[in-house]
Amino acid sequence: MSVALTTLGDMTTHLVDAAWDRIDRWLLTHAPRTFAALAPPAREEDIRAAERELGVDFPPDLCASLLRHDGTRPGPEALRFDDDDRLLGLREIVEATEMMRSFAQGLDADDEDGYWSHGYVKFGAYEVTSDGVAIDCDPRRDTYGTIGRFFDEIGTTFGKADSLSAYLTRLADRLEIPGHPIPVTFAGRLIWEDPSQRLPEWEPTDTPLPGPDAELPSFDLPEDPSERLKVGFLDGLEELGALVATLPPERIAEAARAQARRLADETGLAAYAEITEALDTPSPDSPAIPRLRAVRASAESRGDHVRAKAALELAHAVRGSVYRAVAEIPTTRAMYAPLWRDDLHADLGSPPLPPDPDDTFWARLRNPAIDADAYADWFTEGHCIQD
């Protein structure tokens, strides 16, 4: 190997290590669970075997990164880039890349080059879909070593970074100097939040309450405010969802009131007296319901999606649907409040957090307010629950 190539390799390793030093330090301080989810270094012989298996040449900075961390464990504590792609380990890189190649096999040659070329290697996965982040590992191309992103609908587009070392450096920058999306931490793990909605000015008027014949959008509220809550409403809350499902009903009712007051204050809807009064004394027949329907109609006409959704969630709270309110209000606040998890945890009384719930958790759940029947039925049909 020439002196020039050796020097270039040393420089690349230095840049990758410098970026990982900053990332590791930030995670260890602010998100220790995410730091603990990082895998130890890959073995160099395994990296070479993966190159042979895929028939590619990994750029030096991909090798240097794998020699620092062989990806991250899957799960809520996993390290994800700011576009929510999870950093993959070596074996996952091979499997994900082979899967992408199989997707591209049925395409014409010209389409394949734009969709997924043989030299592309997937090193980050969105996981909800086949989307992910890729690096070009074909040294014959000008894009060798550059970073792109694959979208299932449009294929692979390069230009995210000139190299993996630059991509990792950008991640370190965004952790240390937050922008958008915002790195937040909760329960020791890193989460990227992108509160994309702003709250436009809202000027309540003294207009009278709408009459019963007013043409207003329906909330399609359940007839019974105590209707059982489907587990799906709690899935996105992760360990907080498990907390909601297991705390005493009285604690949930208190949290629902606190969440509703936060939402009403932040969206300006607390300026309506009938809404604040109804939040103190929930009732299915409250005059706040027609007011909230009018608010929703006005907000939708302005394109104000936050307040339109807030009106619906406050209607659940006003009618006494406490589980629905405490499950849904956080998703509305997430549109503009990046620390919504901390607020919900505080409103629930800040008890110790349980693990992230899985199917077994929901199948075991015995809460008459939560409808987990589908999970229990699934296990009853031949899938045992280990004690």
Keywords:
disordered N terminus, 387 residues, elongated, five-stranded antiparallel β-sheet, single chain, 10% strand, 17 helices, alpha+beta
Note down, in words, how this protein is organized.
The protein has about 375 residues and is of the alpha+beta class. The longest helix is centred in the N-terminal third of the chain and has 28 residues, at about 5-30. Strands 1-2-3-4-5 form a five-stranded antiparallel beta sheet. It starts with a helix and ends in a 7-residue tail after the last helix. Helix 10 runs antiparallel to helix 13 (about 305-320), helix 10 (about 250-265) packs parallel to helix 14 (about 320-335) and helix 12 (about 290-300) runs antiparallel to helix 13 (about 305-320). It contains 17 helices and nine strands. It has helices spanning about 5-30, 30-35, 45-55, 60-65, 90-105, 110-115, 165-175, 230-235, 240-245, 250-265, 275-280, 290-300, 305-320, 320-335, 340-345, 360-365, 375-380, and strands spanning about 85, 120-125, 130-135, 145-150, 155-160, 180-185, 190-195, 230, 370.
